Amino acid sequence: MALTDDTPLASEYADRVIAVEPGGNEYIPDDARHGTPRQLFWTWTSPNLEFATIFIGVLSVTAFGMNFWQAGLGLAVGVGLGAAAHYALSARGPLFGVPQMVLGRTAFGYRGNALPAAFMSIMCGVGWFATNSVSGAFALSTLTGMPKVAALALIVVAQTGFAVSGHNLVHAFERIVFPVLAMVFLIVTVVIFTKADLGAAAPSGGVGGIGGFLLTVGTAFGYAGGWNPYAADYSRYLPATVSKVATGGYAAAGLFVSCLWLSVLGAASATITSTVAGSPTDIFTANLPTALADLTLLAIAIGAVAANALNVYSGAMAFVTIGVKLPLRTQRAVVSIAFGAIGFLVAWWALPDAAASYEAFLLVVAYWIGPWLGVMFADQYLRHGRKLDGLLYNRSYTNWGGVAAFLIGLVISVLLFSNQAKFTGYAVRELPDLGDITFFVGFLLSGAAYLLLARPGNSADDSVAAATE
């Protein structure tokens, strides 16, 4: 059992659905464990059956200058990388029974882990929340005719409510909406592919070439890999005896299938000639019969809620992991409400230029997740077969080598290889055909740096574990 300073509250929550999950990031004891790995398939499918996923594919054609087949390959590579990482991270949830950001303490130390936890809280818990809320608001506004701000407020209230309730209601909601969203988007896929020109040349004005392909890979990973820091949050309640292969497999399959399906659908829709103006959701649904368009708009709004229920829940979990002191029983629920309010304001600000904001945001997400994954996987490799119980809640445990490795990969990769409107990396200025390989460089640099800076013989983790177990 993992050692924690907090009083375990999960036992009284167990498998109750209509209840507010108490506590924050504490260990889940055996008597509160429940569920099967199969539930992770729809938990990771439903949140991606939404317009934000579709728009990745649209960007790959219209902004990055890919034809349909080039876009499909780039999307498959980017999503595949995110799903592979998700497999490994999700599989550890039942074994350790703690959230993903708590597991990160082994690589970064108790206090050093506040850095990646803060990144996740702000960029994923608030940033992703705002991004998905915008697409849901656009869809609901078009469907009902209500002002965009009113539609945004309605979407925010719904998704924050699920997140406040907690783990079990989030899982239940994803399961309920899964068949509805899957059926709607299956019909939409058939209609779009009958109209798409899959053999059309890449449009002019985009990036094109290897640079455009790498941007496609980077944005696809930024989307799929954006879920990686959440992975164990939704598998930690599973019994410790469940299969690691099944746990990781169902989670990765749900992520891969949903992300690749809808992003490829978006790429196909971008090959249809259209003169329709308006929001991105308006342009997409203009290719559909009226009844199906309305149904799709409703599905987009529901999909935004499905995605953001996870975003707010895990964002709040990461914030609690930073170490901010709040009342134990209500800390996660209180932070969820706060994130919902902040996310609403950010989404309101992004409404006028959502497309440009989304493209930039996807790449920025990949920038920090690449180095984070590099450190996490290097740490996991070095600790293979070792106990972690004594490290996860030990406030005196430090591993500054992990923090240094993360910052080395992040800073160097961004300075050299970032390809943003606001900042272009020094290497990309000289070699523009590189596109944006910040994620790959950050991952490799941070992983290598961690192997050098935090070898088992150079850290105090074994002595700490021995003293606290």
Quick take:
The chain is 68% helix and 0% strand. The chain is mainly alpha-helical and 469 residues long. The N and C termini lie close together (9 Å).
Q: What structural class do the secondary elements suggest? A: mainly alpha
What is the CA-based Rg, rounded? 21 Å
> Mean pLDDT score, rounded?
83
Order of helices and strands: HHHHHHHHHHHHHHHHHHHHH
How many strands in all? Answer: 0
Number of discrete helical segments: 21
Instruction: Name the beta content range.
Output: under 5%
End-to-end C-alpha gap = 9 Å
Contiguous uncertain segments of 5+ residues: 1-7, 457-469
Approximate shape: globular
Assign a percent range to the helix content. Answer: 55-70%
Largest sheet: none
Set out the fold topology.
Blueprint (H helix, E strand, L loop, with lengths): L9 H4 L25 H7 L5 H12 L5 H23 L2 H4 L3 H4 L1 H4 L5 H31 L3 H18 L1 H29 L13 H16 L19 H26 L10 H6 L4 H33 L8 H20 L3 H29 L6 H4 L7 H18 L8 H5 L7 H16 L7 H8 L1
Helix pairs in contact: 2-10, 2-12, 3-4, 3-11, 3-12, 4-11, 4-12, 8-9, 8-14, 8-15, 8-16, 9-14, 9-15, 10-12, 10-14, 11-16, 14-15, 16-18, 16-20, 18-20
Features:
disordered N terminus, 469 residues, globular, mainly alpha
What does this protein look like?
It is built from 21 helices and no strands. It is mainly α and 469 residues long. It has helices at residues 10-13, 39-45, 51-62, 68-90, 93-96, 100-103, 105-108, 114-144, 148-165, 167-195, 209-224, 244-269, 280-285, 290-322, 331-350, 354-382, 389-392, 400-417, 426-430, 438-453, 461-468. The protein starts with 9 loop residues before the first helix and ends with a helix. The model is unreliable at 1-7 and 457-469 (pLDDT under 50).
